[in-house]
Amino acid sequence: MAEEVKTPAPPPPPEGEPKSTAEKPAAATPAAPTAPAKPAAPAKPTGPVPLPWTSPLVEKYRSQYGSGLEAQTYLGQNYLTVDRALIPNILRLLRDEEQFDYCVDITAAHYPKREKQFDVIWILYSFPRNQRMRVKTQIADGASIPSSVSIWPTANWLEREVYDMFGITFDGHPDLKRILLPDGWKGFPLRKDYGILQQDQEWVQINLGIESGQ
Amino acid sequence: MSVHNNESANEVSNLDLETPERPYLDSNELIINMGPQHPATHGVLRVILKLDGERVLGTECVIGYLHRGVEKIAENRTYTMFNPYVDRMDYVAAVSNGLGYCEAVEKLLNVEAPARAKYIRVILTELNRIASHQLWLGTHALDIGAMTPLFYTFRDREEILKIFEKYCGARLTTHAFRIGGCQYETYAGFEKDVKNFLTFFAPKIDEYETLLTTNRIWLERTKDVGVILGADCIALGVTGPVLRASGVKWDLRKAQPYAAYSEFDFEIPVGTNGDTYDRYLVRMAEMRQSMRIIEQAVNGIPEGPIMGKVPKVIKPPVGEIYHSIEAPKGELGYFIVSDGSTQPYRLRVRPPSFVNLQALDVMVRGLLVADVVAVIGTLDIVLGEVDR
């Protein structure tokens, strides 16, 4: 699997520290709202590319937060890539002002070759607008992110699962502990450096009394 | 809306097992363990109950006993190879799982299944919805103490499984669909079998209802038990029949139609009280609506190809997609990140059972121990999907 990770995100440009630019290969340019076609990813020029997403919602938050926020649409699905610093605020505003009252899912993806290794993704839905959107941010390994349990109570188990699988910690979560794996387990299975056959052998030997779980 | 004033009502409890709620002597406070091996937890669910006598003060769910790492497996399989794995999540509604996955990958590939394939998908998915609700009804009633419905529903569910078996050779984990359409053309007599099932099944729902709907014991055990408000459902992300029984008229088949659902005429049954009885009524009505959909689909099934233009080797372009469908238990979503290779870079399943189970604590607080069984049943969870 290790050779599969070549495509995502060439190492971000050195000046890209405060801006979350390279969220995916095809979007390596900053949020230039005028550029309709981006320089396509080196790998596959055939597929559709993310286009800028323009809507009153985006304009409003862009004027408020400026460069910390990039809005795109891919195959008709809208997403915001925001700076990690904006995270609790923008989610709260989306719920309070834009009626995104249902947090469908919280998940993450691991890009080990990137400087900020993790994407954390919120999938939101608004019942009044019948619209979906995603919010995405990048964080480094070991960094934490504010919990959104106070915004959507459903985030409780979803964030626990992200912690369980990726080891991302959520500040302010009422009870951040493993949910699917046993409490004493070592390692975070959905990280790319965790092999598919890998197990916490020590845990297996102590708790199951067998040599190996395989 | 009171959704956002969620101070205590919809906060999921995290039990402090060390300190009793009332630390004086006459307290009957008790921590007991329900499951993981328990016939009424529908699988290996462990619930830690904090009780004051018979009354539930709080719960904590311990899950993960069936965790197989489905999302990790997905990253190590090609898109085609992963297709059968999704059936093993919600194994009583395998067809829905497959539909969601195939449509998500199709969206990522930017292709669409042909009309005939969509109709076949709708027929089989709705049959599976009925089968899933039948299994729910039988086991739920059995938990509460009514044994007969189990035999009735399993007898009738058999007819659906026979159709599945004739169509694709499998009864439970069907792997019925392929990315781009369906692998199998309908067998000779498929339409007739489906129509026969509809005429066979219509009086059977009435039969179930004569057993339960006005049954005094059933009413006592389900009315005003496990009440959850619509606003709390939304805040807790609860979807499916549980959300609709709380009065929120929302069904993805209508809100964001997929497959061929926009072409059929059907209604979204809703409840008012959000209690166990309303959830029962909603699911009964949903079975009737599913029959309506199947009838329209089987009568209007178009001719044509069943497979879209999909390359032999599936290599979606770089990008990511979220697609969700209305599974029998709620919103089932797939979030797929593609890096342009033959394997998903990241595949996330948004399981309805997992999210709905989180509401258990809110629903059972203040009820009796026996009601916990009723509420677990009414949530209609499948642990294979909770744990993945």
Lateral arrangement of strands in the main beta sheet of chain A: 1-2-3-6-5-4
Number of helices of chain A: 4
Low-confidence stretches of chain B: 1-9
* Spatial strand sequence of the major β-sheet of chain B: 1-2-3
Arithmetic mean of pLDDT of chain B: 87
Beta percentage of chain A is 15-25%
C-alpha-based Rg of chain B, rounded:
21 Å
Q: Considering residues with a beta carbon less than 8 A from a beta carbon on another chain, report the largest interface and each chain's count.
A: A-B, 52 and 55 residues
Strand content of chain B: 5-15%
Write down how many β-strands of chain B occur, each being a DSSP E stretch of 2 or more residues: 8
Major sheet size, sense and barrel closure of chain B: 3 strands, antiparallel
Describe this structure in words.
Chain A is of the alpha/beta class and 214 residues long. Helices cover 19% and strands 22% of the residues of chain A. Chain A is built from four helices and eight strands; from the N terminus they run βαββαββββαβα. Chain A has a six-stranded mixed sheet with strand order 1-2-3-6-5-4. Chain A has a two-stranded parallel sheet with strand order 7-8. The two termini of chain A are 19 Å apart. Chain B is of the alpha+beta class and 388 residues long. In chain B, the strands form three sheets. Chain B has a three-stranded antiparallel sheet with strand order 1-2-3. A three-stranded antiparallel sheet of chain B has the order 6-7-8. Chain B has a two-stranded antiparallel ribbon with strand order 4-5. In chain B, a hairpin with a 5-residue loop joins β7 and β8. In chain B, α3 runs antiparallel to α4 and α6 runs antiparallel to α11. Chain B is globular and about 70 Å long. The chains are: A alpha/beta (214), B alpha+beta (388). The interface between A and B is large, with 52 and 55 residues.
